[in-house]
Specification:
The structure is a homodimer.
Chain A lengths: L2 H11 L9 E3 L6 E3 L5 E11 L10 H19 L2 E11 L4 H18 L2 E9 L3 E11 L14 E4 L5 H4 L1 H4 L7 H12 L5 H7 L5 E4 L4 H12 L2 E5 L7 H7 L1 H10 L6 E5 L4 H6 L5 E7 L3 E5 L5 E2 L8 H4 L3
InterPro entries (chains A, B): PurM-like_C_sf, PurM-like_N, PurM-like_N_sf, ThiL-like
Pathway (chains A, B): Cofactor biosynthesis; thiamine diphosphate biosynthesis; thiamine diphosphate from thiamine phosphate: step 1/1
Function (chains A, B): Catalyzes the ATP-dependent phosphorylation of thiamine-monophosphate (TMP) to form thiamine-pyrophosphate (TPP), the active form of vitamin B1.
């Protein structure tokens, strides 16, 4: 078995060579074939992860497999789409069987959690990088875009923010702490679970949505720009985990929650009359502000006064929320 | 404008930010959205091209853009699919505006020739590589797979083979020759035009098909294995261009035609009664052999005697058909 046949071997085991729901033809031909039920649209997103840019050198392959797929599927959650399949293009300097087996296991574990299946891919030799393209289905006209936020809507997020950015000193081996503190932070970084249930529930209700990958402030800026409105955020309402507070202290925790990326929780705008219904479904919805006339993102302190944001964006793991 | 906003700028210009036929939502949101007419399936293929593996260091960016998309769309032709859209994940060491503009022009030129539109993508910093995922539509149940070849079918190809492999000494700057000879060879390498019309015409007629990327012998081996048959190739019937003969001599031209990859012409198996009808449509169909009982690929000389193939496969541009 050649080096790269070895790779196909591992991924064939963790995938679907056969047809299944929505997948008429899987791995092994020139193309995969998908069926789409009448009245549905196909949602598609592509993400590349490069070693040294999106993850540290020599990452744990199991965790990398989990994270790579979780990050990609999160874009489907952000559109309110139901996962169907994904392709994986993997470039590797060499084909180490142990590495590949662990990576494929991590990928497969996240695939099972998201009910998504590997339908095709490509393997090449070169510096480690991954490009995943994910496919989901969504009822026609019900996809959650960034452009529909209406003045008066609530601004919400799908739970605590900042854990992934706060975990970076741990990911990079720069700091250590008790496991009770580090474990939830590292889990958020390495196994970001796409908020698929939340995304589905928001169909026909949220007026705009995305997943937070660049940081809350930067991503709210994307919604504001696409919708032609201003988003007002009450800083004190942005939820932060006790683990992050314990690990990073309040000032830095707040900074990570506002500007750190990689949380992959949803941010969305919602007409107020839908809030109670969605919260009663047990969905993790936190109101952090509202949509107003104007442009850009306005951050308010606890007295309702505008404050200067700590920084505007996030440049991948290397620069984090410093 | 930041470096990578610059990139988005170039590709937004060469693509569709707006909706259009089959594309309900293009670039700029978490996902693109595709519509699929009732009774059709979506064909999907992913290809990665890495500098130094699939193309030389410092390639001409215009030609690279053309070739990258042509190679990817060829997989749609091989399935008999009609192109709809593609995503581009590009990793670049730096964002040189001249390079990007030329690359985007090459990409756009091939996109227009194939009637396919850029619907999304990702840009990252790192060693130059490209991952394209292409989407096409095909009537349900009519996609051309590799697995249906029937004993007695004709084995055909979509025209002359070997030009792209024969061009490699030119691509690599190792040889020079008159332009009348080099131009058609280099064009085949850098601007492989997917055989979309041929693929469409073969729907419901060809029993198996693929595009020749690994070399005729290796790719016929894939059809033979997937279909559980043997493919018999009459060496003298494999068409070779006069340019290749002039540049490389007969022995090497033959070797390139049999074992060189990167031609991206179709190879397919066809019940004999369809041949005349298809040829009368003006399609470039050459019969080179037939499907027989057994397994693997059998190469016959002009006296009908089995001969040893020159080599079994092709390992990308570096090793070509040597």
């Amino acid at each position: 078995m050649g080096e790269f046949e070895l790779i196909r071997h591992y991924f064939a085991a963790a995938s679907c060579a056969q047809a299944g729901e929505g997948v008429a033809l899987g791995i092994g031909d020139d193309c995969a074939l998908l069926d789409l039920p009448a009245g549905e649209q196909l949602a598609i997103s592509t993400d590349t992860l490069v070693v040294g840019v999106h993850f540290p050198e020599s990452p744990d392959p199991f965790l990398l497999g989990q994270r790579a797929l979780g990050v990609s599927v999160s874009d489907l959650a952000a559109m309110g789409a139901t996962p169907v399949g994904f392709t994986l293009a993997i470039t590797l300097p060499s084909a180490d069987p142990d590495w590949l087996q662990a990576f494929a296991r991590g990928l497969d574990q996240m695939a099972q959690r998201c009910a998504i299946r590997l339908i095709g891919g490509d393997t090449t030799r070169g510096p480690l990088s991954l490009t995943l393209t994910v496919f989901g289905r969504v009822p026609k006209g019900q996809a959650l875009t960034r452009s529909g936020a209406q003045i008066g809507d609530l601004l919400c997020v799908g739970g605590e923010l900042g854990d992934a950015a706060g975990a970076l000193p741990l990911v990079l081996g720069q700091r250590q702490a008790e496991q009770a503190v580090t474990q939830p932070l590292l889990a958020r970084y390495w196994s970001p679970m796409p908020q698929l249930d939340l995304g589905c529930a928001l169909r026909g209700k949220a007026t705009a949505a995305l997943d937070i990958s660049d940081g809350l402030l930067a991503d709210c800026g994307h919604i504001a720009a696409a919708s032609g409105v201003a988003l007002v955020i009450e800083q004190a309402q942005v939820p932060v985990s006790t683990a992050l507070l314990a690990f990073a202290g309040e000032a830095r925790a707040r900074q990570c929650a506002l500007s750190g990326g990689d949380d992959y929780r949803l941010a969305f705008t919602l007409p107020a009359h839908f809030l109670l219904e969605l919260q009663q479904m047990g969905l993790p919805i936190q109101v952090i502000g509202r949509v107003a006339a104007g442009e850009g993102v306005i951050l308010l302190d606890s007295r309702g006064q505008p404050v200067q944001p700590p920084r505007s964006g996030y440049q991948h793991f290397g620069s984090a929320c410093d």
